[in-house]
Write a structure and sequence with these properties.
Helix content: 25-40%
Number of helices: 6
Number of strands: 8
Structural class: alpha+beta
Shape: globular
Strand content: 35-45%
Order of helices and strands: EEHHEEEEEEHHHH
Length: 212
């Protein structure tokens, strides 16, 4: 069942670049920081359960594991009038001592012709009281129609809302009374147009708000 917790408010702390390269497409770097109302150890352990993480990521579907230990999956992205379903694989390299990990993935939208590649570094660290802060640094490369449509500022706003859904799902699963109850909790469905226009409006407000 989709979780129905209060919406979290992750904060974007940096936006470093949005570059178009003729050889590769649009190259973006996005950094986000958000707080989870759980201990660092419990959140770190949750992140090591890749199937559970996939169930809390809006639009993500875990399809299996390859012989080399990488994960095979599908990520559906809806940005207003455009829908892309990237199929591919990713590897996860965790470092338990520092509570950091590196995720590298790539995928292809077979129907629309878009291609995506991402390298993510994330860190889980203690915050106030019994909470933790998570920092995510993502280097994203898009080519094809998705590259023409994507803009870092707009993708930042959309990813902020998706991370809010992810945090809500994570906290709901960690609060579940039983394993069966936790397994039933899923991220809510991504509603493309609603998400797109809400993100677009927030992006426009941020742009014009800088001059006030």
């Amino acid at each position: 069942m989709p979780c129905s917790c209060l919406v979290a408010t992750p904060v974007i702390i940096e936006q470093t670049s949005d570059t178009w390269l003729a050889s590769t497409g649009r190259v973006m770097k996005i950094t986000q920081d958000f707080v989870v109302s759980r201990s660092p150890d419990s959140v770190w352990q949750f992140f090591q359960d890749v199937p559970a993480v996939a169930q809390c990521l809006p639009g993500a579907e875990l399809l299996g594991m390859a012989e080399d230990g990488s994960y095979e999956g599908k990520l559906s992205v809806r940005m207003g009038p455009m829908t892309a379903a990237f199929e591919g694989n990713c590897t996860v390299i965790p470092d338990p001592e520092s509570r950091t990990a590196v995720i590298e993935g790539r995928g292809v939208d077979k129907k629309g012709g878009s291609r995506g590649q991402v390298k993510v570094h994330y860190t889980v660290r203690p915050a106030e009281a019994d909470t933790c802060a998570v920092t995510v640094d993502a280097d994203i490369t898009l080519s094809g129609p998705a590259a023409q449509f994507g803009r870092t500022g707009l993708i930042n706003e959309m990813s902020k809302r998706l991370i809010g859904d992810f945090v809500n799902c994570l906290e709901a699963r960690l609060s579940a009374a039983t394993e069966a109850e936790a397994q039933a909790i899923r991220a809510p469905e991504v509603r493309g147009l609603t998400l797109f226009f809400a993100s677009l409006w927030a992006w426009i407000r941020r742009i014009f708000g800088r001059g006030t």
